[in-house]
C-alpha cells in the first residue's frame, strides 16, 4: 500500500499508519481510498488482529479531501460520477465500522473534513492535548458538505442541535470543547496517545456502532427525533439568512440533517451522497475552492515571484508615517519578528502610532488569547521616532504618509539620504501612480507600491504595484516581505487607481446612481448585501468620506481630461456635500449617527432623491455584480492585472466581492461570457456606457474564450 503501513503487534492490536507518499499532509483521494479498502479487508480477514489503532505518520492526522481533485468536479464530473465518488468514500468508512474489529483513532494533530470523517467512523477517538490539534468539518466553507458520512455520524454522536451548528459554521473545535460535545472520547498528552489507545482496546470494546443496533433512534435529549411541524420549520429557516442565500451548501446540509435524522443509517448515507454530488457539480464549490484555496495558496507560495533571485531576509524595516496605515504595518511587521523604525513628524505622534499595537494586544490579553510577556516582546521591536538617521541599515522602507504627491516626494528624498543604496523603497498608496511617485527617487528601479488594506492586522491581501521602472529584483523583495507577513500578494501594473481601488469605485458609484434613479436607499443597501457584499455601498461611502472618491475623480480629470467619463454617482456625492453631509467621521452621511444607539438611514434622503417603485431588485443585484466584473475585464485587457487568479483574489480579499462567485472573472465564466456580453449590452442601453463591452471582450465571447 502506497499511502498506508500496517504494523501488527503481539498483543493483537495492529497499528495502521497513514503517510501520504506524495504530499506533506494526508489527503483523501482515490488512491488513499483504494489503500484503505485494501487494508480494512486485510484486517477483517486476519483473526490475529483484535483491534486497530489508526494514526498518522505526519505531524497532523489528516487535512481532508484533495481539493485539487475536487475542483475538477464541476467541469468534468457528471452528477452520477460525483455520487459514485462520495459512495466510494462512504463504503470505506462503513467497511471500517462494520469490520468486526474495534478501531481507535489516535488524532495526533488537526483532523478536518474527510480526516475527521475518518475519525468519526472509528469506534473511539483520542485527541492529542495540544492547541494545534483541532477537529471539525469545514466543508461548508468551500461550498460542499461532508460527503462520506460526516453529516450523519456527527448528529448521531453530538446530537442534532450541536451537530447542525458545527456543520453550518464549519468551525474547528479545540480539544476541551470537542470532549464536552462528545465528538472525541479522550484528550491526552502526546506521549500518552498510544498507551491510551491500547488501554481502551484492552477493555475488549464492542465493535458495533450504536446506529447498527436494531431499534436505534437518535437520543431524545440530544436533539430532534420527531419530524413534526415545528421541526420542519426549524430546519427550513435554520441559519440560511446568516449563511447567505447564494450559497447552496447550508441548505443542502439542513436537508441532509432533516432527512437523515428520520432514515435508517445506510439510507441516510445515500441521501448525503446525493446532496454532495449536487454541490460538487455546481459552479459555486468550484469557484470557492479554486480562488480561496488553490489560487490563494499558489499566490502565497510565490507563484508571481520572479525566478532565480535570492530570497531576502528581513531584520529591520522602516515605516514612514504613524497614522492608521503606518501603525498597522508596524504592528504586523513586528509580529513577524522584524524590528521596526516607526517615523512621524515628532516623537509624540510616532508613539501614538505604536500605541495602536498596545491597544490591539491589550484586547487579546484581556481575552486570554495572548500572554503579556509575548506582547511586550513584540512591542519592544517597534521604535517610535522622528529621526530619519535611525533608518540606516533597514532592509526595506514602507512609506505611509498622507496621500499627497509632494509630501510623499519630500519623504522619499529624506529617507534615501540615509538608507543603504540596496534598500527597496515601497509606497503604501491606494491611488497615486507609482511611476509618478518614483520620480522623486534616485533609484526608481528599486521603487514599488505596497497597498495594504485597512485594518492592516486583519486584512490578508497586499496589492503589489509595479512602476514602469520597477525591477524584477525589487518585485521579489516585495513578495518576500509579504510572505514574511503571511499575507496574500497580488501583482498589478501601474495605472490610475491600480486594480482594487479602481474596481471598488464602480460598486460605490453604482449604489449612488441607483439612489439618483429613485431606488429607496434601504433597497440599494439590501440589494448589494443580497448578492453577498459584506456592506452596502452607501454605508461604504460614509466610511470612506465623500471627499476620497471625489478627489480620485478630480485626479482622473487632471490626467485624462475630456477622455475621462465621470462615474455615475458623482452628482449624488456632490449633492450630499452641498446638503452638509459627507461622512461617518463627521456624523452625517447617507446615514445618521446618533450619540447613542445605532446608525440609521438619513430621513432627508427622500427629499434629495425622491423614491419611486420603478425598480426590480434582481436587476439591481445584477448591476452590482456586472459593474465590478466588466471593470475587472477592462483591467485584464489593459494589462493592469496580468492573470485571472490575481483578479479574483483581489476581488474576494481586497474589497469583499462575494466568495461564492470565485471573484469577478470567475463570475463571468460562471454566467458564461457570451451571456455576460449580451447582458452588458442590454444594461448599457438602459444605464449608460459604463456597461458597454469592449471589442476585446466581444472577440473573447465570439470565440467562447473563458478566463480559466
Largest sheet report: 8 strands, mixed
CATH superfamily of the largest domain: 2-enoyl-CoA Hydratase, Chain A, domain 1
CATH A-level architecture of the largest domain: Alpha-Beta Complex
Tell me how many strands there are: 20
Supply the number of helical segments: 31
Strand order of the largest sheet: 13-12-11-14-15-16-17-18
List the domain count as a whole number: 3
Average of the residue pLDDT scores: 94
CATH topological fold name of the largest domain: 2-enoyl-CoA Hydratase, Chain A, domain 1
Give the helix level as a range of percent. Answer: 40-55%
Poorly predicted runs are: 220-230
Straight-line distance between termini: 36 Å
Class derived from helix and strand content: alpha/beta
CATH class of the largest domain: Alpha Beta
Q: Any idea what the radius of gyration is? A: 28 Å
In percent terms, what proportion of residues is strand?
5-15%
Shape type: globular
What is the oligomeric state here? single chain
Please sum up the structure shown:
The protein has 708 residues and is of the alpha/beta class.
Give an overview in words.
The chain is of the alpha/beta class and 708 residues long. The protein has three domains: 4-208 and 218-281, 2-enoyl-CoA Hydratase, Chain A, domain 1, CATH 3.90.226; 316-496, 3-Layer(aba) Sandwich (Rossmann fold), CATH 3.40.50; 501-703, N-(1-d-carboxylethyl)-l-norvaline Dehydrogenase, domain 2. Helix content is 48%, strand content 11%. It contains 31 helices and 20 strands. It has an eight-stranded mixed sheet, sandwiched between helices. The chain has a six-stranded mixed sheet with strand order 1-2-4-6-8-10, with helices on both faces. Helix 21 (500-516) packs across helix 25. The protein starts with a strand and ends in a 5-residue tail after the last helix. Residues 220-230 have low confidence and may be disordered.
Amino acid at each position: 500500500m502506497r499511502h498506508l503501513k500496517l504494523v501488527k503487534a503481539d498483543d493483537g492490536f495492529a497499528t495502521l499508519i497513514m503517510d501520504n507518499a506524495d504530499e506533506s499532509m494526508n489527503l483523501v483521494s482515490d488512491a488513499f481510498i483504494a489503500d484503505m479498502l485494501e487494508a480494512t479487508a486485510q484486517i477483517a480477514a486476519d483473526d490475529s488482529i483484535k483491534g486497530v489503532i489508526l494514526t498518522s505518520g505526519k505531524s497532523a492526522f489528516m487535512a481532508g479531501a484533495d481539493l485539487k481533485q475536487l475542483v475538477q468536479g464541476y467541469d468534468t464530473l457528471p452528477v452520477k460520477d460525483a455520487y459514485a465518488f462520495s459512495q466510494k468514500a462512504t463504503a470505506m468508512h462503513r467497511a471500517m465500522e462494520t469490520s468486526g474489529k474495534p478501531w481507535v483513532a489516535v488524532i495526533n494533530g488537526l483532523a478536518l473534513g474527510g480526516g475527521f470523517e475518518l475519525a468519526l467512523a472509528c469506534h473511539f477517538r483520542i485527541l492529542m492535548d495540544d492547541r494545534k490539534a483541532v477537529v471539525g468539518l469545514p466543508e461548508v466553507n468551500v461550498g460542499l458538505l461532508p460527503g462520506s458520512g460526516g453529516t450523519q455520524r456527527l448528529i448521531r454522536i453530538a446530537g442534532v442541535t450541536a451537530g447542525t451548528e458545527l456543520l453550518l459554521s464549519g468551525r474547528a473545535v479545540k480539544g476541551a470543547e470537542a470532549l464536552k460535545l462528545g465528538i472525541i472520547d479522550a484528550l491526552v498528552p502526546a506521549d500518552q496517545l498510544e498507551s491510551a489507545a491500547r488501554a481502551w482496546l484492552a477493555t475488549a470494546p464492542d465493535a458495533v456502532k450504536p446506529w447498527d443496533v436494531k431499534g436505534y433512534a437518535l437520543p431524545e435529549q440530544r436533539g430532534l427525533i420527531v419530524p413534526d411541524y415545528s421541526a420542519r420549520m426549524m430546519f427550513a429557516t435554520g441559519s440560511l439568512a446568516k449563511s447567505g442565500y447564494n450559497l447552496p451548501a447550508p441548505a443542502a446540509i439542513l436537508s441532509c440533517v432533516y432527512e437523515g435524522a428520520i432514515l435508517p443509517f445506510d439510507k441516510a448515507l445515500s441521501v448525503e451522497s446525493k446532496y454532495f454530488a449536487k454541490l460538487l457539480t455546481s459552479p459555486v464549490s468550484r469557484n470557492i475552492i479554486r480562488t480561496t484555496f488553490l489560487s490563494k495558496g499558489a499566490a502565497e507560495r510565490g507563484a508571481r515571484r520572479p525566478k532565480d533571485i535570492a530570497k531576502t531576509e528581513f531584520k529591520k524595516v522602516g515605516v514612514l508615517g504613524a497614522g492608521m496605515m503606518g501603525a498597522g504595518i508596524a504592528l504586523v511587521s513586528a509580529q513577524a519578528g522584524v524590528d521596526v523604525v516607526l517615523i512621524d513628524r515628532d516623537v509624540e505622534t510616532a508613539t501614538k502610532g505604536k500605541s495602536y499595537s498596545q491597544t490591539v494586544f491589550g484586547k487579546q490579553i484581556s481575552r486570554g488569547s495572548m500572554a503579556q510577556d509575548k506582547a511586550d516582546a513584540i512591542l519592544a521591536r517597534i521604535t517610535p521616532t522622528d529621526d530619519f538617521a535611525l533608518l540606516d541599515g533597514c532592509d526595506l522602507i514602507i512609506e505611509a504618509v498622507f496621500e499627497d504627491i509632494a509630501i510623499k516626494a519630500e519623504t522619499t528624498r529624506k529617507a534615501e539620504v540615509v538608507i543603504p543604496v540596496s534598500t527597496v523603497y515601497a509606497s503604501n498608496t491606494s491611488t497615486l501612480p507609482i511611476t509618478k511617485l518614483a520620480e522623486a527617487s534616485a533609484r526608481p528601479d528599486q521603487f514599488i507600491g505596497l497597498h495594504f488594506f485597512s485594518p492592516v492586522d486583519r486584512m490578508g491581501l497586499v496589492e503589489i504595484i509595479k512602476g514602469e521602472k520597477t525591477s524584477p529584483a525589487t518585485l521579489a523583495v516585495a513578495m518576500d516581505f509579504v510572505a514574511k507577513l503571511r499575507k496574500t500578494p497580488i501583482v498589478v501594473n501601474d495605472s490610475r487607481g491600480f486594480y482594487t481601488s479602481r474596481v471598488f469605485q464602480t460598486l460605490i458609484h453604482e449604489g449612488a446612481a441607483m439612489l439618483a434613479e429613485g431606488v429607496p436607499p434601504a433597497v440599494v443597501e439590501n440589494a448589494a448585501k443580497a448578492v453577498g457584499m459584506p456592506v452596502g455601498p452607501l454605508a461604504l461611502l460614509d466610511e470612506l468620506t465623500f471627499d476620497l472618491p471625489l478627489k480620485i475623480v478630480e485626479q482622473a480629470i487632471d490626467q485624462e481630461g475630456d477622455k475621462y467619463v465621470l462615474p455615475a454617482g458623482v452628482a449624488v456625492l456632490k449633492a450630499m456635500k452641498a446638503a452638509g453631509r459627507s461622512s461617518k467621521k463627521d456624523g452625517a452621511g447617507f446615514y445618521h449617527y446618533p450619540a447613542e444607539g445605532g446608525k440609521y438611514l438619513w430621513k432627508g434622503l427622500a427629499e434629495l432623491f425622491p423614491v419611486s417603485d420603478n425598480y426590480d431588485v434582481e436587476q439591481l443585484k445584477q448591476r452590482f455584480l456586472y459593474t465590478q466584473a466588466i471593470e475587472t475585464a477592462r483591467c485584464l485587457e489593459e494589462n493592469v492585472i496580468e492573470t485571472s487568479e490575481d483578479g479574483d483574489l483581489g476581488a474576494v480579499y481586497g474589497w469583499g466581492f462575494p466568495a461564492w462567485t470565485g471573484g469577478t472573472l470567475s463570475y463571468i465564466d460562471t454566467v458564461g461570457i457570451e451571456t455576460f456580453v449580451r447582458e452588458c449590452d442590454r444594461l448599457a442601453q438602459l444605464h449608460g456606457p459604463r456597461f458597454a463591452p469592449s471589442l476585446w471582450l466581444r472577440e473573447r465571447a465570439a470565440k467562447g474564450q473563458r478566463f480559466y
